[in-house]
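Board notes (copied after class):
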Amino acid sequence: MKNLDNIDRTPKNRLSRETSPYLLQHQFNPVDWYPWGQEAFEKSQKINKPILLSVGYSSCHWCHVMAHESFENVQIARLMNDHFINIKVDREERPDVDSVYMTFTQALTGQGGWPMTIFLTPELKPFYAGTYYPPNDSHGRPGFPKLLNAISTAWNNDQENILDSANNITSQMQKTVQKKLPTASIPLTSTSLSDRFEIFRNSYDETNGGFGNSPKFPSPTNLEFLLTYGSHKKNQDDPKSATSMVLTTLKKMWSGGIYDHLAGGFSRYSVDEKWLIPHFEKMLYDNAQLAKLYTHAYQITEDIFYKEIATETIEYVLADLYDENGAFFASQDADSEGVEGKFFVWTNEELNEIFDVKESQIAKALYNIQKEGNFFDPHHPKLTGRSVLSRKYELETLALKLELTVKELNTKLSKIKKTLLEKRKKRVAPKIDDKILTSWNGLMLAAVAEAGRGFDNRFYIEVAEKNVTFFREYMWKNNRFFHTYKDNKASVDGLLEDYTFFTIGLIELYKATGNNKHLQWAKQIFEQTINLFHDDENGAFFDTPKDGENFVLRQKSITDSPTPSGNGSAAIVAIYLSRYFNKPEWETLAEEVINITLNNTQHVNYGVSTVLQSAEFLLAPRKEISITGGKSSRNDFERKLSKYFFPNVTIAVGDYNAYLPIENTLESTDIATAYVCSDFICQLPATSISEFTRQLDNLMGI
């Protein structure tokens, strides 16, 4: 595939004035692109042309394929320009637009994905939708030119029926997406969650970890729910217990090619059931959530393996997706030099050139490199014998096969890994999408704050503090969040996910530091979340603010995508802050979300795990832990607490001058004192680590 950065420089189109890296990739297309906005809408209405809406993102491999095959093709571009008003959207910059039209695409076709290709009336109502289209008929899909001609002909000859169809589709979808509190509430009981857990058990892949068949996505929200659900269960030795399924999945994911064994970090998904062959783009949202999961796995098991993978994942983000001002970038591309995965794969011959015979043998065995290779790209059939690195064997097993001690093999592994990484750094690296998104930064904020606390890593805490400072200064104006930041400009009104993800990050940073200003800002943000997004009439939260753009649908997301649902995250925030600030009415907001979700997803399997996490939080016995005293005297107590996985416990820390939100009647003293409480009834104050440990073990049921 041709490198998008080296195409012929035809005159720029309107996208040259945008800041999105994805839109800028299309600025030299011969297509007369418009960004999403009034100029395009008014032109469509004025000349009565339908709109061709194309949605993608910069690290999307198939978006690049369609761009090269169709949008750079002068003849196809002419068809598009003659018959349509063409709008290009970056789904990460405008998740509100993407969500509305993906809902239609999935309803009309039974599937979704990117690039998304959807045809709209001048009133922005959809009448035909799909995803990737090849330039010629292929794999059961019509060629893109044929589709363009067919839709243009239908629009010109049968416009009345198309408009009727679009109106009917929109009317039906508006009814479908309405989510109201049920007339009779479904009681929330432990059975509500055990039934959902059984769905996971029944679809669990005992051989490879994960759920279902190929393609396999990490789906961290599902894994996080299972860890939360399993945190108080007694059957941890069962290989299909909630905790065991997660721990096995995390090890299997790491062993496959979806994990970058040289620099750390996870790709978005694997095309096979073994986690072996990825689509190579690395997303901030995946790596943030997975770093947090591996941190939790370490807290549960004390197995250093999970800490190492969490750390390597965070270090990848800090190396490649981190801005010196404190914010995190969106993603790293799958392609380099126009070829998917070229930066990441290796051949047998390359290893023979890099290492001597013995080291080459060890390197190939370590990373499962075969002469025939394991990665084949149909767009570049001449590139053969290429392998994605994976780890087939445990170190102990491989040491026996190679007749080495584990210590000797570990030493060689470090040397081989370092050598390969240095060689790889000399290659042309995939592009970084350097836009900054509030929601995804909130996920990463939570990850580094939790890792900083769990690993006693002060640097990670400093990274989290710097991130908060950036967002307070540049992305929070007039008590409102912006969604995106690029080229020193904040833009797009913040969405529900921006407010809720970032609030969770602030709560985690408060737990890690005891700095009450983080919790106070979290409270301020949530009050504005209620004001802007809550549906006072029917319950739960809209994805877009009440004074935002008027879309043909205004949705309430309860299902997770690769990221948590906005409503599920809002419910978790509501429970935490209701308990920190003694506001039971906020817990009622979480109950609304849970009730609506259970009512709307009785026959859905595992797409609502973030809401299920909030339900588990509500069902769990109320527990609180407070540590007070001077910062230096608190350190050992906080360090001890960080070794435990307490997903449903309200944790408050602070010095003797601090207002301790969960219990302001506790005695203040310079001496570090810990209080372990159930429903605000506390055990005797613990002033020694041994006593605190005993109380924590008792709380865990150990």
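Comment from the instructor: Residues 1-8, 657-665 have pLDDT under 50 and may be disordered. The chain is about 50% helix and 10% strand.
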